[in-house]
Amino acid sequence: MEHKSSLPPHLPASVAAVLLPLLAEIEVALRHCVRQVSDSTYRQYKCAMERMDYHGLTPEEIGANVRKSFNLYRAALVYFTIRGLRPAFSLLIDYPPDFAVNEALQLAYRCESYVRVLREYPPGAKRGRSKWKRPDGPPVRKSKRIGFSKLPDGWQIAMIEAVKDDPECANATRVTALTGCRPAELVAGVVVEATPCGTLLFEIPGAKCTENSGQSFRRFEVKNNNLIAENLFREVVNYGQDACLLVKIVDARAYCDRLRGVSPQVLPRQKYTITPYSFRHAFSADQKKQRIPMEVRAMAMGHQSALSQRHYGRGSQAKGQMIHIERVEASQPIRHLEEAKMGWPKGVESRTVAETASARKPETPSPQCYAMIV
Known about the structure:
- This protein is an alpha+beta fold.
- The protein has two domains: 13-120, no CATH class; 148-370, hpI Integrase, Chain A.
- The protein has 15 helices and six strands.
- The chain has a six-stranded mixed β-sheet.
- The radius of gyration is 29 Å and the shape is elongated.
């Protein structure tokens, strides 16, 4: 809708006095068409506005902890501000003869309040600096374990199918699913060997390694007893050299972005976004469900401290076909085993290694050998 660049001459002087200083800003604001939003987005915006009105808070106050929350409240405020400014200003420009001066003045003051809001939050996502600031204190951790249990069975296979057009990404995702390795370790390169006995042997260079944390190198063998392992075994045999294949990615960020990009396509109704660390949590949950000893789990995931297991997927979150570890080797011994056992109040983690091994269900194959290179 186009508006005149000046106020109509028949507008009352009191109303014109309010609008005239705001005319340029109103014209700029009204050039931004209110975009059509879906019903669900409109309900979100309406709920956000009601919340801000009820608490009397600005977007940066009510959405202080998370930038995404701030952006929602800001978008809702700008949406309803422009939506309210447009009809109010149009009515003043038309100014019907039977319109009372007091009502017109109230509309003018309402337009003034709308302009004040738009000064603070200009329309357009890239105009001006964001008013959101990270709250004081330590950064908020966004663990992929939260909401992880809501993923359906077979989500790992579905994610691999979604990237099968890119063999490098597909093989990297298979390795991530079977080993729980980090993206940075894939940048260094993971060697996968198809052994004569039909298993997969992984050699993984460590990441996040210091004197007291991380494993600079680990090797472990996985049974070829699920669809992901079978497909990777076939890739190694067909495209590897001497039954060995180097699985490597160029850029960890690009790999993460690729998985994040296909996640909404694979799971359109899920709010959870799948990343490489989702596979790492799934690997941990899988091993915990099988009641694999804590020392073995820590070596397989590249941890030097058993306490790190607390931050990864729980056994109750495991789904789909199990990943069975045959043997594992790591460059450093595992520390804090006793503290980790004491720290878990209940469940598998409170048991000793011997108790855990003896408590396995008969149908769960037990690993043959647990080796450690010190």
